[in-house]
Amino acid sequence: MKILALCTGNPERLPGKSYRTGIFKHAVNGAVMIDAEGLVGDAVCNRKHHGGVDQAVYVEGSLTLDWWAQELGRPYEAGTFGENMVISDLDNRAVAVGDRFAAGDLVLEVTSCRIPCATFAARTADPKFVARYKDAARPGIYCRVIKGGVVEAGLRVDHRLFTGEKVTMPELIKTFGRRLSEADRARYLASPIHYKLRALLEAGR
To answer: Strand ranges (DSSP E) for 2-131?
Structure first.
């Protein structure tokens, strides 16, 4: 595996919306510094729901994006879903919470899946796309930064699998907002899951 693209964005307004968003990402040339908050210079406008230490970097796998290109009937341009990094030969369905991606000095740890929102729907100009994205069960991957570093496209990526019980990206998006069984709740809590989801699970929600 290798990094195919690194994407950043500037604050922009969506057509017909009054607020600005950082969802418009574009591949950048050259090296990018990634620290605990993500890609340096990347815009995160709504920090209540986006960004932060447990979703500092949003990753998409190239195999998943190839699938979407076929589904949508058009080529996929890196950054279209608002992702920060595209990794070659990666299928999002094969990724679990606690998996790590290492590239050079950089080490990322998977915390959760991407849950599509109203901004995502507006970005795609398709009000039904949120439901379609959820049904596809190939969600993007949020990561925390275990160790920061400077990376660039072409750098080799090592996918290190979580050694505990798996909580996969497809499972996470399918169970989002639903009450878990006690066994599943314990399994989720045994993984290094996103702190917000951990708080909900610990509260019994």
So the answer is: 3-9, 12-13, 20-21, 25-27, 32-35, 38-39, 57-61, 85-87, 100-103, 106-113
